[in-house]
Design goal:
6-stranded parallel beta sheet, 9-stranded mixed beta sheet, binds NADPH dihydro-nicotinamide-adenine-dinucleotide phosphate, alpha/beta
Length: 332
């Protein structure tokens, strides 16, 4: 299979703005789109030059679709993944993979049983910037990592101020953004945090029903400390990742976004120097290409289903810590 024939499950903003263009740039076919509303599916298909629209069952029954890209709201990810796996379709599912560990594990199990590939569409861990930072760490550029700081406080665009601000669809900044942080931290540190404390707030002018700002502190079994700040409410701050080690510091600015931008600075005993990322490839193309290759048996997706589940595990623990005011531990 040199190209992939996709069915979109979910007539979403992210499919329209990022994923369909990425698929097409790679020469993949976007065959069909499914939505909960026939009218919405038809309008969306028309607007995006997709020839087929229908229900999820309609598109899963087609034999001209190899894989589905699920970008519905989060509560649909599990049932739609299970249906797709049962129909023998490979699944690239949006983050957060699921709203509970039980749901996420069921998705991983369903795809394993069906022998189809499951991946999570975390766009940050595969970026040239984050691959380069992992390589610098593996090469010993900072010595032993002692602490990491993540600044991922942004302003939620007006067009996205719907279900994310609190609904049964899994709103709240922790499931939306902290899970992105975890998708970068987990492969960087090679472990999940052991203990987590956090505080959250509702700050925005929109009267959100869920938290729209959260700060957390994570402690790892080896003593590494991590701070995260995730928010929908901060308009004028760059995103950032700082890796503070015994022999040096890596400081990345502006890379926790959807475009392949940002910088890396390495500071150690010999001074300070800029490091160019390995590449500046489109973050969504990287995911689609890695997924298609994995389906062909060549390598693994940027974030597997299990990687997505581990990111959910950290986000759920942060949310629980903030809601309860207690320290939450993750068993190793
Ligand atoms: P949207 O709100 O655009 O779409 C989600 C669902 O909401 C759609 O599938 C659609 O349901 C329904 N919907 C959307 N617009 C309307 C409307 N005008 N009227 C009625 N229903 C509507 O969500 P996003 O694209 O922001 O997010 C989708 C998923 O992608 C989420 O899981 C999110 O976390 C993830 N995401 C990931 C990003 C990444 O960088 N990896 C970035 C942004 C989002 P239906 O399909 O039934 O019509």
């Amino acid at each position: 299979m040199t190209t992939m024939r996709w069915g979109l499950v979910g007539a979403s903003d992210i499919a329209e703005t990022r994923m369909v263009p990425a698929m097409r740039r790679l020469g993949h076919d976007v065959v069909a789109v499914a939505s909960g509303s026939a009218e919405r599916a038809a309008t969306y298909a028309d607007r995006n030059g997709i020839s087929v629209s229908g229900t999820v069952a309609d598109i899963l029954a087609r034999d001209d679709i190899d894989a589905v890209y699920i970008s519905s709201t989060n509560e649909h990810h599990r049932p739609q993944t299970e249906l797709a796996a049962a129909a023998g379709k490979h699944v690239l599912c949006e983050k957060p993979l699921a709203l509970s560990l039980e749901d996420g594990q069921a998705m991983v199990d369903a795809c394993a049983r069906a022998g189809v590939t499951l991946a999570t569409n975390h766009h940050l861990p595969g970026s040239g910037i984050h691959r380069t930072i992992r390589r610098l760490v593996a090469d010993g550029a900072v010595g032993r990592i002692l602490a990491v700081r993540v600044h991922h406080a942004v302003l939620l665009p007006a067009r996205l101020r719907g279900w994310r601000l609190g609904s049964p669809a899994g709103g709240g900044v922790t499931m939306d953004i902290t899970c992105h942080d975890a998708s970068v931290l987990n492969p960087l540190l090679g472990a999940l945090p052991a203990d987590i404390v956090a505080l959250a707030a509702t700050q925005g002018p929109w009267g959100a029903a869920a938290e729209d700002a959260v700060m957390s502190t994570l402690r790892y079994a080896d003593g590494t400390l991590v701070q995260t700040h995730d928010a929908f409410t901060i308009a004028y701050a760059p995103t950032g990742l700082q890796v503070l080690g015994s022999d040096g510091t890596i400081e990345s600015a502006g890379a926790f976004i959807q475009d392949p931008l940002g910088t890396i600075l390495l500071r150690d005993a010999s001074g300070e120097r800029a490091v160019e990322p390995e590449d500046r490839g489109d973050l969504y193309e990287i995911n689609v290409a890695a997924f298609a290759a994995a389906v062909r048996g060549d390598g693994t997706p940027t974030s597997t289903g299990v990687d997505g589940l581990r990111a959910v595990q950290v986000a759920l623990a942060v949310r629980e810590a903030a809601a309860s005011g207690r320290r939450v531990s993750i068993a190793s």
